[in-house]
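> call design_seq(struct)
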């Protein structure tokens, strides 16, 4: 059985995933993409082996069994709602936005759809999911990013926080994962994924630092659970096209897609 895949969003992540699918993955075939700039998307696919249609976000479900959402958080619903309403699998990268659109889970349940959240730039998500089965006391994440990777975040603008010209690390946020997802929608989807895997967005705590001394996006995670104490750190290389996104995120999507069609699946 071959699953057809459509890509919603053709930025730093979408292009990498689409290119890998075009090169060929057993059990998967790419059938369509969606992008705000149709001409740019078409130009980016010049070297592709297949000729793919560039379609509206809301029409992706018509072209595929699996819709991969890797677009701005603001358009999550435009992609996911019609796809889930028609029983499709939707792989969601904007899982921060999912926290405020959780009725999509009920929509999927009613119509035989599924929402999948890939590991993305996070480390140890399988371990957190397993630990949650035995009970978790606390989850805390500290994120450090080069200042340019946080520029334009709604929280910084709303609180008039200036991170230009920093010489020393500056803590720009401390609060819950839900608050972090709303204030930094392009930066901390990892916090939302961690919250969904563990004890929820209102009990998971997050700190965000603008740090001019680092060149990678660093996430430090501490989990206290009945079954284990977890302490994890990942240092992701930012994408060349978008410093807010680590290169590992696109690779995680590819790995998750391969798991859907592989006869052997590793991990929880």
């Amino acid at each position: 059985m071959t699953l057809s895949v459509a890509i919603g969003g053709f930025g730093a992540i979408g292009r990498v995933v689409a290119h890998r699918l075009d090169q060929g993955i057993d059990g998967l075939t790419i059938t369509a993409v969606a992008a705000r700039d149709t001409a740019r998307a078409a130009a980016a696919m010049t070297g592709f082996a297949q000729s793919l249609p560039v379609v509206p976000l809301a029409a992706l479900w018509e072209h595929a069994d699996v819709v991969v959402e890797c677009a701005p958080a603001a358009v999550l619903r435009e992609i996911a709602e019609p796809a889930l309403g028609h029983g499709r699998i939707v792989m969601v990268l904007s899982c921060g936005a999912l926290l405020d659109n959780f009725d999509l889970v009920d929509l999927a349940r009613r119509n035989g759809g599924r929402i999948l959240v890939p590991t993305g730039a996070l480390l140890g998500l399988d371990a957190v999911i397993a630990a949650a089965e035995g009970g978790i006391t606390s989850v805390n994440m500290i994120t450090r990013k080069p200042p340019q990777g946080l520029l334009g975040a709604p929280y910084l603008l709303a609180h008039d926080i200036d991170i230009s010209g920093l010489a020393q690390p500056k803590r720009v946020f401390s609060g819950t994962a839900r608050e972090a997802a709303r204030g930094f929608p392009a930066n901390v989807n990892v916090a939302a994924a961690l919250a969904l895997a563990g004890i929820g967005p209102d009990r998971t705590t997050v700190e965000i630092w603008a740090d001019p001394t680092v060149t990678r996006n660093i996430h430090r995670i501490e989990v206290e659970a009945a079954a284990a104490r977890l302490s994890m750190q990942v240092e992701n290389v930012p994408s060349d096209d978008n410093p807010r996104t680590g290169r590992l995120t696109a690779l995680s999507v590819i790995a998750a897609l391969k798991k859907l069609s592989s006869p052997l699946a590793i991990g929880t």
